[in-house]
């Protein structure tokens, strides 16, 4: 379980450092396009880091809670099907969720990518409408 907690802990520390640097930069600097772009990139990094942290620490947290519940002989722990479902979702599905959502965050946060994919979406929607009629 430790290998599930070390990397997210490193990400959390880096995210905290990023937030501190972002706040210092906001106070020290004036509003220039370069500072604005830097802040936008920092916000994107924070969003991605937070998503990574949530998706990858869930297995660690659920393992701790499950161990704590088993110490108290909770009835929920005795069901192997329920335990397999919870661990399967937290260990496999949530990291896949991160992998699926990460590109969408980048597309939404970067105007050039957003415009490019909106063009593809509009073309696909027109093709779909014309094939339905």
List the helices and strands and how they pair.
Blueprint: H1 2-28, H2 33-71, H3 80-109, H4 111-132
Helix pairs in contact: 1-2, 2-3, 3-4
Order of secondary-structure elements: HHHH
Tally of DSSP helical segments: 4
| Strand runs, count | 0
For the termini, the CA-CA separation is: 55 Å
- Rg calc: 21 Å
Q: Largest sheet at a glance?
A: none
The secondary-structure class comes to: mainly alpha
Task: Average the pLDDT over all residues and give the rounded result.
Answer: 77
Spatial shape: flat
Beta strand %:
under 5%
What percent of the residues sit in helical stretches (DSSP H or I)?
over 70%
Poorly predicted runs of 5 or more residues: none
Describe this structure in words.
This protein is mainly α and 133 residues long. Helix content is 89%, strand content 0%. It is built from four helices and no strands. The protein has helices spanning 2-28, 33-71, 80-109, 111-132. α1 packs antiparallel against α2 (33-71), α2 runs antiparallel to α3 (80-109) and α3 (80-109) packs across α4. The longest helix has 39 residues, at 33-71. The chain is flat. It starts with a helix and ends with a helix.
